[in-house]
Design goal:
12% strand; alpha+beta
Length: 67
């Protein structure tokens, strides 16, 4: 699936769901996912809920528009 389509599905960005904006880390240290504790794509300095790509995708699936 085209990643851009997934991010704009129902007019909401998955990054907005995560509350992290569009920042991504150039290198370690990475923030931990708040659900599974795996490293995320975001630096530790990012405020809010940080999710790894898998948990972010699962959260987007749960909150997606139905019908």
């Amino acid at each position: 699936m085209d990643e851009r389509r997934e991010e704009t599905y129902c007019g909401a960005s998955t990054a907005a769901t995560a509350g992290t904006g569009t920042e991504s880390a150039a290198g370690p240290p990475y923030a931990e996912c708040v659900l599974c504790r795996k490293p995320t794509e975001y630096p530790e300095s990012v405020k809010g809920i940080t999710l790894c790509p898998v948990c972010e995708w699962q959260e987007a699936q749960r909150t997606a528009c139905s019908g």
